[in-house]
Amino acid sequence: MRTPIVAGNWKMNLGRREALELGRAIAEGAPTQGVTAIVAPVALHLAALGEALASAPVLLASQNAHWAESGAYTGELAGPMLREVGVRYVILGHSERRQYFGESDEGVNRKTRAMLAQGLRPIVCFGESLEEREAGQTQAKVEFQVRAALAGVGAEDAKDVVLAYEPIWAIGTGKTASPEQAQEVHGFLRGVLEDLYDRATAQAMPILYGGSVKPSNFAELIGQPDIDGGLVGGASLKAESFLELCRIAVQQGPKG
């Protein structure tokens, strides 16, 4: 069964005091079961949040990582370093990383395999542009990205991968794919995973939706059979809205 996931990507926001206040407010109100609640602050605040959330039902994610365990990679973060401060998940391949920092499909795959080997769970992002959607290329684009990200990842390891479908045209724009549009892509990808692995593995892998997720649209989205939660941007920067998303996820219950 796939437990719902609500993952808050704080992006490049919040100073240390604000981040700690938000993390503690979320920790105080987070459900103790029925949902996996995750927050991803900027790298500077990971250690502080790791301590603040140590006994809370809220898990910590990094917004990025390098594939190497150490080395001459100025400015990068290694998996073992992240694990040491309490990080459990790593967001990989977000469209902003791809667009602004040259993240490639090959690099996402390399990082995915490295994080799994280093004891961290990747949240692998993918999605199409508005031009690609209007050209009818959505399925081809997301299938290519998912297959590329999972190349060389065996079925047992794949069960520790979280996928996140984020249509680029819906990120930070206020536009959201309709529940039917999102389910169409998620259902298609479930079939791709079954082709890559087997039905049991495909059914075990969570697929999140991201792109202007908020309490007003989340119930309809997560109510779809193949949408297992949300990768949330702006709505994760306020405890009230993030906790409301968690409550909606608990009401939905597990799938599979």
UniProtKB/TrEMBL annotation:
HAMAP family: TIM_B (MF_00147_B). It catalyses: D-glyceraldehyde 3-phosphate = dihydroxyacetone phosphate. Substrate binds at N9, W10, K11, G172, S212, G233, G234. GO terms for molecular function: triose-phosphate isomerase activity. One of its GO terms (cellular component) is cytosol. Its EC number is 5.3.1.1. GO terms for biological process: gluconeogenesis; glyceraldehyde-3-phosphate biosynthetic process; glycerol catabolic process; glycolytic process. Homodimer. This is Triosephosphate isomerase. Involved in the gluconeogenesis. Catalyzes stereospecifically the conversion of dihydroxyacetone phosphate (DHAP) to D-glyceraldehyde-3-phosphate (G3P). The keyword Cytoplasm applies. It is found in: Cytoplasm. It comes from Lujinxingia litoralis. Pathway: Carbohydrate degradation; glycolysis; D-glyceraldehyde 3-phosphate from glycerone phosphate: step 1/1; Carbohydrate biosynthesis; gluconeogenesis. Belongs to the triosephosphate isomerase family. InterPro entries: Aldolase_TIM, TIM_sf, TrioseP_Isoase_bac/euk, Triosephosphate_isomerase, Triosephosphate_isomerase_AS. The lineage of its organism: Bacteria, Deltaproteobacteria, Bradymonadales, Lujinxingiaceae, Lujinxingia.
